[in-house]
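Bumping my old thread because nobody answered last time. Still need a sequence for this structure:
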């Protein structure tokens, strides 16, 4: 079974250390949102674990923009290894969907 966008986000966020995850949430709260979307409220991210944050990203930005937002935030906080891994995993997901 192919991984969902939430699965990919969760895997990526769980791989971040505690400090990096905190930075990710802080930058996500300040992230410039795509037109037609709302920023995730700060109180929704405070105290949120990786699963909560993955769900919030999907809920606020839909699956079609969730990976793009996460990639942008990862790059902005300098987490290039996590960025590259998520980018590669999401490309594999797109390829798997295209083959169906």
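Sorry it took so long. Here it is:
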């Amino acid at each position: 079974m192919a991984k969902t966008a939430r699965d990919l986000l969760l895997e990526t966020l769980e791989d971040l250390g505690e400090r990096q995850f905190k930075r990710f949430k802080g930058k996500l709260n300040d992230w410039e949102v795509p037109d037609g979307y709302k920023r995730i409220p700060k109180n929704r991210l405070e105290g949120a674990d990786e699963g909560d944050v993955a769900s919030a990203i999907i809920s606020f930005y839909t699956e079609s923009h969730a990976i793009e937002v996460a990639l942008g935030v990862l790059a902005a906080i300098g987490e290039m290894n996590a960025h590259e891994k998520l980018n590669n995993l999401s490309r594999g997901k797109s390829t798997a969907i295209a083959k169906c």
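Residues 5-91 form a domain with the Death Domain, Fas fold (CATH 1.10.533.10). Let me know if any region looks off to you.
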